[in-house]
Every structure is written in structure tokens, then in C-alpha cells.
Amino acid sequence: MNYIIANDQGTLTSLGAADQTVMFPSNMILGMDVAEDTGINLFVVSPLDTNDGDALLLKHANTNTAKLDHRKLIDECVSLINGDYNGAAVLFDAANDVKLPTQVLTGSTVTQD
Amino acid sequence: MKNTYIYFGTKGYVNTPGVAPSSNIAALATTTIANSGLLTVTKANTVVPNTLPYRVVIVGGDQVDNVRGTDYTNDFVTGALFNVDGDSDINQDDKFVGQATELTSAKAFISGNGDGVITIGDNTATGGTVGSDAASGFTMTTADTVIIEQTKRADEVGNGPTAGTTLSVACCYPMSSFVGANPIAYGKTHYDGTVLDQTNLHFVKRDGTSATDEIILIHKAGKYPEIVKAMEAIKNSGVYNRAITFYDLDVDGNETFIGGASLSGNNDLGIVGCFRKA
After folding, report:
1. A67–B153: do the CB atoms touch at under 8 Å?
2. Residues 6+ apart with CB under 8 A from A26
3. What does the pLDDT read at residue B161?
4. Predicted TM-score (pTM) above 0.90
5. Domain segments of chain A: what residues?
6. CB distance A51–B203 less than 8 Å?
7. Which residues of B touch A82 (CB under 8 A)?
8. Could you tell me if B172 lies within 8 Å of chain A, comparing CB atoms?
């Protein structure tokens, strides 16, 4: 079993509250969809309530020039989720400027219910 | 554990009975994201329909003379001239059963201010509030069928997943969340004469609650067995580095199909509509 980590905080010292960082098993992913014109949601089972879900918003470029970016981002998520790695994989991490190729870190967020 | 993922774009589809005009206009049933995957773009009678992300086609359900605007000269499906003359005139305005007329004239119909209601004007000189006339209008009867078919990914306000967003919904699920395919009575016919069925694909709901997300498929009748075989083939495909597209319609009008159990990439399932139930 692999795990996924996402963090939307730019500095480690700012960590310490809800809706900032989440770690979840890769088999807890519920799905993805178009959240807005410049972003997708990645839904996971909430670690706080297994009858609820958390949403990670992954932003991408403006749709005027990149109307297929949502699909690229979904494929990149699938590839990372199914990747051959041991332990945990980082979906995105604002503190260390880690992101998916098509992702824009600004505005990408972790929201827990 | 690796998991295959399935991807669905949106193709809105409406198949509704014709409406007899009153005061020269006929308002169709409201289209919504919830019931058809498409909110028809606001359209004035100066906008040419081929600029819209959908088309409107009327299929004749009875024979009536002098009801079709003279702008419409050829059958949308067969391409044949509407030259069968039901009476003594020589115009091509006589409607026959099965003839498919695409409303291509700007003044043929309007769509309200984001309300999802298409109003079609008749082919009289007055035209009512739509502003249609003998060239652009179409006088329907309740025996006719009107089909509104999305032709490219919508990029208009009201078509996105939330208020203010514009791009049609697209969604993706792990195949481990697939919980079943449910055949639904549909009983309608496409403009090309294809009898249609509906199948709802259910997935564990994305918000983690106990309900399911439903993907509505409108497709050629009798394709349910091939749909479930295609789902099985996707699950067992061993593709893990991307999502597998079951159906997609892009902003340029290009369609992607999964095909049947062979994953052929062709429209073996005869899909005419695909959208997530809101």
C-alpha cells in the first residue's frame, strides 16, 4: 500500500492547522472532476470521517489557452497514484515547490470536512 | 495496489416531443444540467446556430404541408432534397414522417437568458416574438420530435460544475468504485432512426457519502451487454499511467469513444449522450 501527501502551505513553520496538509492511502481516492474552469478536484475519503470526503483542489492554467489542462492533470494524478514507489508520494507541496507538471501551485488547496 | 481509472466527458442530449405553436412560437421543455447535461446558451435571433455548442433537429412525426421554412432544403441525415411535394406548390416546405430538419437559420429559434428554454418560431410571416418567418421558421406539431444535441464541449456560463464556471463537467473514477450498471427505460428514437436505450453507471459517490454518482449514457438500443463488457475490459486493462476515456467531447467537437468490449475506439455502443447526473 502506498500513501499520498499533499500540502498547500508555503512554509513549514505555517503548518499547524486544519485544511493544510493531508496524507491518505492511494486506495482511498474517490474520484476527480472538473471543479472550475481552471482547476480539478481530487476527492479522497476523509481521515476524520469515513462517511465523508475531503477535496484537494489542483489548479491549472487559464482555460483560454489550455482547455485540455484538466485532462492532463487528471492523467498526471493517475500516473502518480499508481506509481512504483515505496512509502509515500508527494502529490503537491507548496513548501518545496513540488507539483504535477500541468499544475499551478498558486491556489491549489487542501480542504478537509 | 494499482487501480485503473475511467474518464467521462459530457455530451448533453435532449429528445423531447414537438410543441404546437401558440402566438407563432413554441417553447420546448426546459433543459438543465441535471436532466440533460446541457444548459442551452442564451441566443438571440441574430445568432447563427452553427456558432453554438449544440444543434437543434426536428424529426417529422406526421405529414403536414407548408410548415418548413424555405431556408431548409436538405434532410439533415440523408442529405436528400426536401423535394417530395405534398400538394400543388413547388416549395420544399412540406414535412413528412422521418424527415430531419436542422434549424440552421438565425431567426429559427431563440434561447432565453440562461433559462435553458429554446423557443422555436413558426413559418408564418409574423413569426411572433422569435422573429422567424416563412424562410426560417418551422411550425411543429406534437407528433414531431425535437432533438438538442451537444456538438462540442460547452464553454458558456451555466454549463460548469458551479455558478460562474463555464466548461462542461468531466469526471474520473477509480474502477474499484464502480458499483454497477443499471438499464433504464428510455424508449426514444434518434434523428437518424436509431432506437435508443439508457444505461446508468454507478460509482461510489465522490463526496464519500452513501449515495452514488451516476453517469447517464444514452446509446443505441440493445447495447447494455456490451457496455458492461467494456467496463470489465477497462477494469482489467492494466493501464495505470492515465485515465481511460469512456466518452469525451472536446471544445473543438472531437469525440473519443471507448468502443465495446474490444475497446476499439469506435462508437460501437452508439452513444449519443453522456453526462453525470447532477
Report:
1. yes
2. A1, A2, A3, A4, A81, A82, A89, B1, B3
3. 78
4. yes
5. 3-111
6. no
7. 2-3, 240-241
8. yes
